């Protein structure tokens, strides 16, 4: 931000403004950023709005009468459930709206916050890291213009998601004013994390580190709200007021709307953006305020071979997915007692959770499937990492050594597969131990580890499909995510969907333990399908060109 | 085994584009072979076919007496590859990347590794994501040159190096050649190829347009003769009458011409009669040879052949 007077011979434009305008070129950069992001924004908006619409419809169907809603209110006010829901406004008269704001809003804000963090670090840091920003800044473009353009793109994405979600909610029976309050809260959370991420992007010189800092901030905000709401319902804890999620939920959407908590978030976002601009002005292009640490001059003896290399690259992902999935398992186990009491009081839910038999078993079968879909998601990220390794040409470097394609692909797929299966078994074990404690029934440990084990062939099938798609048409790997979403939806809502719509999910055929009888033939058959998919993938990869 | 690499009539297409279109290449065992061509001519495609990363559509490819597609792993124990655009693992230091790549092939000679790190002035502690282009390239050079590979495949190995490191690189390649290793050196830097290569292949639009030793290639072309004479006009007329004299131009007391090898005798016979005050004759540089192969392309780009030098 130089304030020096312009020298005598300068172009007329600069002479008029008296000094260099840091915002020159912003308009053009905004157009480029939005063009770059248009499909991404559309997919996020449609996915989030669609998810909200489906969830609200499902809640409306399941909790059609006041009695079930009252039972639901009792369940949700337990500490463990509150941690994953909201401050619990309107529990006394738990309407569909109150339920939506209390239980769904958080799960809309989370993906929007993630989207904002990724969008800002992509525009502000990744572009600088790979040298694109240098090219842009060498053109007559002001220092702040790329930052403004990146932030505008993130804000547009946030508004698109919030706006489309609002339109989706208008199609339901919910009160439009409440929907406006909830969606405004969603947008506010997106803005806050865009701002936080803008600051993080100035601290580190690497996009990955910057987005990790943003994600860490997200985790802290999530925990503050969870602990706050557990300690003080209806936003009475100070901790809740330290979290953007708490501000958004404090609008009391659908219950008794108030708008001023949104202003806290907007002010905080503005403050973050101001700090980010100050930091941009103080640092050199390509650097971060926190210097890079040095590594080892030579590799430790253990860092030898494909497996060690893959583990070194993937440990972070394995650990973070593992912790998330195992924590879900623990939570389900802890909640088991409350869930069982609740389901046994309610005929509709008994129907949803299983056919006739013990309601506990039905609930655990459903939750085990949920954990399996999460483990399958991790496995797909493992295959996506293989593709990333190839596209970055590091695959070609390794394959130019005496490493066969089968070893290269097989080790990486093996690490992802084994990690996914171990995560699933550990989450089954943790779910079993916590359920044994909350139900006072030690037998649950063995039962739930067994239930988790039976889902493994299904996870292997998803892995096999991902490997086959990667081997045959690597660009289409994203389609596998759509498949995982399909498997998740038909697994969780299969009972509510038309017959036959779940025919393509491996989990449809596997016995849903502990609700179903154990049956070995489907387990063997699904394992065989997984083996065929993997074999076909490996054969195809042996035959195709590798990106060099 | 006398030829390390033999390629005959190689075709590789990407969709409608014929990246290699009946390409031939022979690299003899123990030689440094220069591989020249502009961007998109097919150099990298050739090297990737040799590495078994790409599958040839048709034609014969022999590498160290093996099939690079079928016998990839066995052949890769005997060769090392240096790409032009090096991507390192972001969270591994340069030293770790060198060791990981070395251990995949059974380990590196630690003394040689240390010596190369020192000579290339590489700081091996820096993380892969933090290196500049030149330093990433040094990591790849150390990783490849510290092996005992008998064949080195280099695809523009010095595009990010400074002139000092370029000199170190040339020394190291000469040492490798002296040890009897075979080098295929694809490069844009003509002086580097001229300094190192025994033989050269020039590729154009997927075909080999020239191949041979530098002397052979020079023999096929012209020598540039610059003579200072008392009477420029007379000299211009006399020389202009001779067959095999090209691009004759006069600048005050100097005449310059490109002379076919067959016509050199006659030019030298005419010169004494013109009152020569100075005389310079030099063989065409590799740059001249290269640009001649691409003269029509230069013309379309609006560059005259003489100006390009």
From TrEMBL, chain A:
It comes from the Bacteria. Coiled coil: none annotated. Keywords: Membrane, Transmembrane, Transmembrane helix. The chain crosses the membrane at residues 41-64, 104-124, 145-171, 177-200, 259-280, 318-343, 363-386, 406-439, 445-473, 480-498, 518-541. The keyword Membrane applies. This is Exporter of polyketide antibiotics. It comes from Cellulomonas algicola.
Automatic annotation (TrEMBL), chain B:
One of its GO terms (cellular component) is plasma membrane. Coiled coil: none annotated. The keyword Transport applies. Its main location: membrane. Pfam families: ABC_tran, DrrA1-3_C. Residues 5-230 form the ABC transporter domain. It comes from the Bacteria. Keywords: Antibiotic resistance, ATP-binding, Nucleotide-binding, Transport. InterPro entries: AAA+_ATPase, ABC_transporter-like_ATP-bd, ABC_transporter-like_CS, ABC_transporter_ATP-binding, DrrA1/2-like_C, P-loop_NTPase. It is found in: Cell membrane. One of its GO terms (biological process) is response to antibiotic. It is a peripheral membrane protein. The keyword Glycoprotein does not apply. SMART domains: AAA (SM00382). One of its GO terms (molecular function) is ATP binding. SUPFAM superfamilies: P-loop containing nucleoside triphosphate hydrolases (SSF52540). Belongs to the ABC transporter superfamily. This is Tetronasin ABC transporter ATP-binding protein. It comes from Cellulomonas algicola.
């Amino acid at each position: 931000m130089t304030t020096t007077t312009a020298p005598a011979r300068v172009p007329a434009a600069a002479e008029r403004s008296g000094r260099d305008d840091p915002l020159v070129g912003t308009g053009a950069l905004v157009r480029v950023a939005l063009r770059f992001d248009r499909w991404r924004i559309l997919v996020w908006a449609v996915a989030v709005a669609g998810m909200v619409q489906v969830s609200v419809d499902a809640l409306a169907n399941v909790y059609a009468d006041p009695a079930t809603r009252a039972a639901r209110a009792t369940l949700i006010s337990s500490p463990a459930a509150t941690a994953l829901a909201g401050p619990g406004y309107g529990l006394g008269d738990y309407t569909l709206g109150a339920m939506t704001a209390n239980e769904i809003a958080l799960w809309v804000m989370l993906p929007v916050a993630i989207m904002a963090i990724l969008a800002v670090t992509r525009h502000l840091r990744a572009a600088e890291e790979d040298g694109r920003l240098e090219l842009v800044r060498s053109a007559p473009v002001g220092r702040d213009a790329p930052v403004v353009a990146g932030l505008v793109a993130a804000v547009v994405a946030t508004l698109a998601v919030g706006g489309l979600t609002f339109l989706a909610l208008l199609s339901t029976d919910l009160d439009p004013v409440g929907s406006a309050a909830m969606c405004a809260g969603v947008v506010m959370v997106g803005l806050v994390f865009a701002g936080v991420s803008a600051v993080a992007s100035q601290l580190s010189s690497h996009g990955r580190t910057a987005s990790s800092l943003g994600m860490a901030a997200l985790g802290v905000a999530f925990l503050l709200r969870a602990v706050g709401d557990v300690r003080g319902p209806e936003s009475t804890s100070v901790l809740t007021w330290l979290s953007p999620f708490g501000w958004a939920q404090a609008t009391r959407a659908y219950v008794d709307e108030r708008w001023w908590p949104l202003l806290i978030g907007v002010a905080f976002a503005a403050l973050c953006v101001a700090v980010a601009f100050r930091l941009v002005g103080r640092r050199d292009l390509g650097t971060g305020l926190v210097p890079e640490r040095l590594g080892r001059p030579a590799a430790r003896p253990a860092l030898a071979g494909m497996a060690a290399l893959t583990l070194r690259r993937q440990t972070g992902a394995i650990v973070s997915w593992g912790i998330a999935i195992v924590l879900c398992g623990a939570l389900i186990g802890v909640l088991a007692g409350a869930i069982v009491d609740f389901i046994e009081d309610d005929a509709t839910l008994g129907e949803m959770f299983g056919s006739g038999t013990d309601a506990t078993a039905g609930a655990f079968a459903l939750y085990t499937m949920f954990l399996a879909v999460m483990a399958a998601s991790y496995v797909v990220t493992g295959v996506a990492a293989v593709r990333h390794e190839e596209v970055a040409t590091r695959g070609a470097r390794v394959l130019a050594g005496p490493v066969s394609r089968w070893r290269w692909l097989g080790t990486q797929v093996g690490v992802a597969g084994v990690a996914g299966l171990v995560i699933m078994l550990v989450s089954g074990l943790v779910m079993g131990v916590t359920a044994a404690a909350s139900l006072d029934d030690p037998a649950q440990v063995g039962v739930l580890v067994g239930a988790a084990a039976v889902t493994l062939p299904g996870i292997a099938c998803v892995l096999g499909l991902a490997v086959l798609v990667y081997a045959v048409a690597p660009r289409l790997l994203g389609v596998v995510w759509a498949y995982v979403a399909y498997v998740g939806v038909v697994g969780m809502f299969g009972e509510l969907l038309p017959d036959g719509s779940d025919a393509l999910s491996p989990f449809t055929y596997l016995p849903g333990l502990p609700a179903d009888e154990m049956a070995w033939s489907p387990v063997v058959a699904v394992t065989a399908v997984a083996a065929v998919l993997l074999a076909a993938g490996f054969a195809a990869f042996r035959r195709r060109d590798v990106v060099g | 085994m006398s030829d390390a690499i033999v390629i005959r009539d190689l075709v590789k297409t990407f969709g409608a584009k014929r990246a290699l279109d009946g390409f031939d290449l022979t690299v003899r065992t123990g030689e440094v072979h220069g591989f020249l061509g502009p961007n998109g001519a097919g150099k990298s495609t050739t090297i990737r076919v040799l590495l078994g990363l790409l599958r040839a559509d048709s034609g014969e490819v022999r590498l160290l007496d093996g099939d690079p597609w079928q016998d990839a792993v066995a052949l890769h124990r005997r060769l090392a590859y240096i790409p032009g655009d090096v991507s390192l693992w972001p969270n591994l230091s340069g030293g770790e990347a060198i060791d990981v790549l070395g251990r995949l092939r059974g380990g590196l000679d630690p003394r040689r590794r240390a010596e190369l790190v020192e000579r290339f002035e590489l700081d091996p502690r820096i993380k892969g994501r933090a290196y500049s282009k030149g330093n990433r390239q040094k990591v790849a050079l150390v990783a490849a040159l510290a092996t005992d590979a008998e064949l080195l495949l280099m695809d523009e190995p010095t595009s990010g190096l400074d002139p000092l490191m370029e000199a170190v690189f040339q020394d190291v390649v000469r040492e490798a050649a002296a040890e009897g290793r075979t080098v295929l050196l694809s490069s844009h830097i003509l002086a580097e190829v001229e300094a190192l290569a025994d033989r050269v292949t020039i590729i154009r639009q997927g075909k080999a347009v020239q191949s041979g030793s530098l002397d052979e290639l020079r023999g096929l072309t012209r020598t540039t003769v610059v003579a200072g004479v008392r009477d420029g006009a007379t000299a211009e007329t006399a020389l202009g009458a001779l067959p095999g004299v090209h691009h004759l131009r006069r600048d005050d007391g100097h005449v310059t011409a490109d002379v076919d090898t067959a016509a050199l005798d006659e030019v030298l016979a005419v010169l004494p009669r013109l009152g020569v005050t100075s005389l310079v004759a030099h063989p065409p540089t590799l740059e001249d040879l290269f640009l001649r192969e691409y003269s029509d392309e230069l013309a379309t780009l609006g560059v005259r052949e003489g100006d390009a030098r």
